[in-house]
Amino acid sequence: MIRQSDDIKGFHIPNIRETLKVTLFADDTTVYLSESDNFTSLEKILNTWCTVSTAKFNIEKTEILPLGMKTFRDHLVETRKMKPDHEPIPDNITIDADSISMQTLGGWVGNHADRNDPWIKVIDKIKQMFDKWEKSKPTFDGRILIIQYELTSRCQFTTATQGMPDNIIKILNKMINDFLWEGSVPRVKRETLQRPKDEGEKNLVNLDNLRDTIELIRLKAYLNAGSERPLWAYIADDMIKKAMNAESRQKFPNPKGATNIFLQEWNIKENKLPVYLRNMIKTGKKYDVSFETINPTQTVKESLPMW
Fold it and tell me: How do 63-64 and 28-31 pair as beta strands?
């Protein structure tokens, strides 16, 4: 009903024909309203759906994350209206101000939210499990396995959804050292223990490599040019192009000529991009990621930009 409604405009994503109005996953529903959409229109659709389906929409758990310019976000939080002539959004619905995060599908999103916040519970849980395992007095090799099981497994998803800041890596590495060496001074360098078993070492998790691997997986999804390319990648395209620095802009009198930063020679102003896109691009450059086609046809060659 939401997708078919003319009262909901949703988000227009560059190079995507269909407007983004709603995404569904299990019992989680995310609705995307444009600045001209009226929340009352959404309420009417939901009420109609509940009446017809005899189901109940959990309106008490509804949470709104304002997007766009800060002036618009602040105005929405203060007035609870998308536009001055709209009815206020009901008081029992949370509207998240800047620095407040909301959870969606296991990840946390918000405007200017602290990137460390999602890690607090993860670190506390790892510490709790390390303390529990300590009571069994595991061997050194056992401690390696426990670190892989308790720490690495918990870090992967959080790193994929939130990134892993440098200060978090520092905290986790200290936890690894303390657990591995029972709080005493390490007798072997961590870098040595991180080498693979076929070199005679322990293959201890390397958090820097783990972070880079996850960033490269994200970059792989971004660079997917096929039908399975995720929607966020098209939004990222637009954001990256808008962050192009002044020198690079001179190469593209027509902005449409800029297609992909990994396919062409141009650079960005890093402070114009959110940290997750900056890190993705930085990691790609670190590992010299580029497009490489084996024996392209003449048609493919002619379709590519000359620069």
Answer: unpaired
> Residue 30 in 3-state DSSP?
strand
Residues 169, 160: Cα–Cα separation, whole Å: 14
Contact 285, 271 (CB under 8 A): no
Residues 260 and 288 in one domain: yes
Are residues 299 and 267 part of one domain?
A: yes
Which positions ≥6 away from 120 have C-beta within 8 Å?
none
Which of 13, 14, 36, 57 minimizes the C-alpha distance to 258? 14
CB 179, CB 143: distance < 8 Å? yes
Q: pLDDT digits over 76-116, tens only?
A: 999 999 999 999 999 999 999 999 999 988 889 999 999 99
The verdict on residue 4 lying in a domain is no
CA dist 72 and 78 (Å) reads 10
Tell me whether residue 3 is in a domain: no
Instruction: Identify the helix (H) or strand (E) that includes residue 239.
Output: helix 231-242
Task: Examine residue 210 and state whether it is found in any structural domain, yes or no.
Answer: no
Q: The domain containing residue 290 runs over which residues?
A: 231-303
Same domain, 93 and 128: no
What confidence tens digit (pLDDT) does each residue in 137-168 have?
A: 999 999 999 999 999 999 999 999 999 999 99
Cβ proximity of 162 and 119 under 8 Å: yes
Assess whether pLDDT exceeds 70 at residue 306. no
Has residue 307 got a pLDDT over 60? Answer: no
Q: For residue 264, tell me if it sits in a domain.
A: yes
Whole-number Cα distances in Å, 159 to 45, 98, 129, 170 = 36, 22, 19, 14
CA Rg value for the chain: 24
**Per-residue confidence (pLDDT) for residue 22, from 0 to 100:** 93
Same domain, 124 and 199: yes
- What is the overall mean pLDDT for the chain? 92
| pLDDT for the residue numbered 305 | 64
Helix/strand/coil for 9: coil
